[in-house]
Write a structure and sequence with these properties.
The chain has about 140 residues and is of the alpha+beta class. The protein has a single domain, classed as GTP cyclohydrolase I, C-terminal domain/NADPH-dependent 7-cyano-7-deazaguanine reductase, N-terminal domain (GTP Cyclohydrolase I, domain 2, 2-Layer Sandwich). About 30% of the residues lie in helices and about 30% in strands. The protein contains 4 helices and 4 strands; from the N terminus they run αβαβααββ. The protein has a 4-stranded antiparallel sheet with strand order 1-2-3-4, covered by helices on one side. Helix 3 packs across helix 4. The radius of gyration is 24 Å and the shape is elongated. It starts with a helix and ends with a strand.
């Protein structure tokens, strides 16, 4: 007896798709050592005088974005956003400043993940810097 089911599979032709992706991309915008004089801190002396704060940020974007100026995430816009946020008011905690930055940058739907490091440079004499690092990922 002949197994017709097996013969059907034997006769099937395997198709190869020409458009099959050969790579998986991750695209990041990197801003290193953006240093601004800002008003931040819980101590009275921090509220009276601005201090140097360094920002390092890595932003992961949608890897399928086309490479033209209208579809990319522009690092200059990110820098200007951080400058505007830090000019507006005094932040007592770096954590609250980071959340404000996240809220503003995540308004851009092309952005999938942000890794933000904020450091006070002159607050503790015995250190080069003190600060926080926070990673936040869009779930949807």
């Amino acid at each position: 007896m002949v197994n017709t089911r097996y013969n059907k599979f034997q006769r099937m032709k395997i198709l190869k798709f020409k458009d099959k992706q050969k790579f998986r991309y991750t695209k990041k915008i990197i801003i290193k050592d953006l240093t601004l004089d800002i008003s931040v801190g819980i101590h009275d002396f921090e509220k009276l005088k601005k201090q140097r704060v360094r920002f390092n940020i890595e932003i992961t974007t949608d890897p399928n974005l086309k490479t033209n100026i209208n579809s990319i995430v522009n690092y200059e816009n990110i820098i200007n956003t951080i400058k505007e946020i830090t000019k507006k008011k005094h932040y007592e905690l770096l954590e609250s400043l980071s959340e404000t930055i996240f809220d503003e940058i995540f308004k851009n739907k092309k952005i999938k993940k942000i890794n933000l490091k904020i450091e006070k440079l002159d607050i503790v004499e015995e250190t080069k810097s003190v600060g926080i690092e926070v990673k936040k990922t869009r779930l949807q």
